[in-house]
Amino acid sequence: MVAAAGNEVDAAALLASVGLDAEGSWNPKAMIPAGAYYDMLERIAAQTDVTDLPVRVGASMRLDEYGALGLAFKAATTLGASYGRVERYARLWTSVVEYELRPHPRGTLFILHRSGMRRLGLRLSNEATLASAVSIGRQVCPVSFVPLEVLVQHAAPKTIAAHEGWFGCPVRFDAGLDAILLSPEALARPNILGDEGISRYVISHLDAELSEIAAEAPLVASAKDAIAQALSEGAPKMADIARGLGLSARSFHRRLSEHGMSFQTLTEETRRDLAEGLLRDERHSLAEIAFLTGFSEQSSFTRAFKRWLGTTPASYRKDRRGR
């Protein structure tokens, strides 16, 4: 993202803002919290026009930058099998995105799932991810690869000419989901470098890595449960939550970082998710929900909720009631 933004931004300062050294060694396994990443993208947007930035980022992505997962994508025998490997092994890439292959009357949807408030940083990231998914598909396809359609959940930027020009197909915003519609012919097409032997070898390694991560995944869910239970007494302290999980504060911080999260981000997500759930229950007043989500005043809760979802708790409840 920073490289694609070009000379109009201060690359070293942007990377430093998320804890990365512009002169440091390349480490594809290094993760940063999603919130910090979105903040950085929004700082880029404040310095330069980002309308076509996600497309330029997607076009620049190379499979060699994805390590073993990139090799597995290349070695799959068909494009459909390649995207199937993204669906299964994306957890090795990121802890905040999931992918799904879903049948569609015209073919198959390759769907991107990313939770969180639809802030600018997240929207830019989603667009870039969709563009990257097409870019890596074109790197293994023996003929020109063009999706049938690209669907984007959020509203369109001021112009979509760059998007449609690069994807080569209709790009539909306000679509309700983030996805690429792929034809049966494209998915069945053999890959340039498809190799069964290499595939088996790489997949065995990816399965081993995935099993290690899967064993750690419950930590995040357990931490969110502990935070939710503690919120009625105010904003919880990391040391207290760690102690309740049988960990030291340092170990807890390290293991959250391995999932690309910070304690602050996890607490924010827990508060937001809990608030949304409570607002769907008419038995709770707004004041009660503010208390249960760890706010000392309803006004503080209202400001935070508006920052999360772009609307007030009262408006959110009213909109849900009208559905």
Question: Please, could you describe this protein's structure?
Answer:
This protein has 323 residues and is α+β, with helices and mostly antiparallel strands. It has two domains: 2-213, no CATH class; 217-321, Arc Repressor Mutant, subunit A. A five-stranded mixed sheet has the order 1-2-5-3-4. A hairpin with a 2-residue loop joins strand 1 (98-104) and strand 2 (107-113). The protein is globular, with a radius of gyration of 21 Å. The protein is built from 17 helices and five strands. Helix 11 crosses helix 14, helix 12 (238-244) packs across helix 13 (249-258) and helix 15 packs across helix 16.
Please report the number of helical segments: 17
Average predicted confidence as pLDDT: 89
Low confidence ranges: none
Strand content: 5-15%
The succession of helices and strands, N to C, reads HHHHHHEEHEHEEHHHHHHHHH
Care to count the β-strands?
Answer: 5
Compact overview of the structure:
By secondary structure, this protein is α+β, with helices and mostly antiparallel strands. Helix content is 56%, strand content 7%. It has two domains: 2-213, no CATH class; 217-321, Arc Repressor Mutant, subunit A, CATH 1.10.10.
Please supply descriptive tags for the structure shown above.
single chain, 323 residues, alpha+beta, Arc Repressor Mutant, subunit A, 2 domains, 5-stranded mixed sheet, 17 helices, 5 strands, 56% helix, 7% strand
